[in-house]
Design brief:
The protein contains 13 helices and 13 strands. It has 504 residues and is α+β, with helices and mostly antiparallel strands. The strands form four sheets. The protein has a six-stranded mixed β-sheet with strand order 1-5-6-7-8-9, with helices on one face. Helix 2 packs across helix 4 and helix 12 runs antiparallel to helix 13.
Amino acid sequence: MRDFDTIDGLHYGRQRIILDFDEVTPENLSQVMQKALGIHGQNARDCEYLIKYFLGKQDILKREGNYTNQINNKTVVNYASPITREIVGYTFGNPVELTQRDMKYQSAVSTLSDYYNYENGYYIDICTALYCSVCGVGYQITLPSKDISKDNTPDLPIVYDYLDPRSTFVVQSSEIGNPVILSCHFTINSQTHKREYTCYTNDYKFTFTNMDMDTLITTRNPLGLNPITMIENSLFLTGDWEQAISVMNATNQVASDSLNDIEGTIKSLLIVIGAEFDETDDNASLKRVKENRILTLTRASGDNSNLDAKFIAPQLDSTSTQNIREYLEEARNIITGIPDRSSNSSGGDTGLAVLNRDGWTDIEIVAKLKELFFKKGKKQQLAVGIKILQLLDLIDSALSVIDIELTIGRHTQDNLQTKTQAFSTLVATGELATIDCLELSNLTNKTREMVERGKEAKKERQEEAIQMAKESAKASGEGKSSQNGANKTAQIEKAASGNSSNTG
């Protein structure tokens, strides 16, 4: 278990389940599961806390009242939700695209991409990314829709979905590289209220109930790959705002205390000096003060000198409170890497100056790091999908995940005009290929795909031009020698092929 204390019951970052086993078999399954569940139990409790925090059930709601007249406002300024929305929306602004590194696999990659999109792949990836943002880890599962059989190919051969990290985990070996030796997902039977476990290795599928190995059913895993994939959010499996929880708790406290002070002012005590209220008629004088906010005092002796009435009210220092709130918001933005939307600079800053000043470069750094971890897990998931389609003879058997390039497109705030000018300048040198110019100018993250489509489009235009030239030559050559027409067509084809020499 962990060697550090919890803070409010939360372990910062999820603990990886790394055990001293080379493989999991039916014989040692019970031993592996007992050790794994102890670690997963704490991870699941952490995830439960973080999900509740994300939904607005935050620590301020547990605060005990210590004000007179039971003044105890509990205000939740739920920044966790917009931080997740901001980072996930920015990082995964467009669906993950699959492109081939080698054109000979174009058909296979296109087929894989079609099944991925048909299974609402973008939605599943977004849900996984949301779990990663909140809990620090997410899971995906990829299975054949039916028993793998070339004679019984279903219309939709792949079942693809996301899994809840509170009921899913993977076990890694302590060997170098920490390979996954077991993945597990469980559900709660609504009738028996027992846990029903489904676990996978590369070789086996295990099902059992409530850790009762007498209920164990072992079958072969025909894929030879683990169908459950862990998607990491960071190296230490922390969520996007997890390290800013104390700052957000402080923000809630400042907001609640400010409301308490305002309400305390409204309910402040009235001090009367030199006079007495009429005690008859159920304190009618006090009642008039509360209802009408007007007080008239007279001394019983008729001497009205030295009469005074005032409220005891706290002095509200709105400036200090505002400074504290601004400090906490700035600290939160720095920790999480989200842009500062409160910036109201009226200067003439444009382009990169604006991006640097308002924090858009910070969120770009966050997005790039998330992208690295997401791609790592996504490639493992794609490997399973490829294997399923290959076993069904639906795609090229030679296709491997290394032949596929994953592109995660997002809506950046970069200056498109600046990038376009840079691209034009690079092309004008005449020393670089088109693909290199695209990459250097950072104009797109789909350079290979764009270059290939450009080549195809150029080829089509050339073919159309040649065809039109042939028809024109044929029409103009009527009544002239056919040899002259043929010579003219040959000249046109030669010129067209010469124009295609500078491709890249």
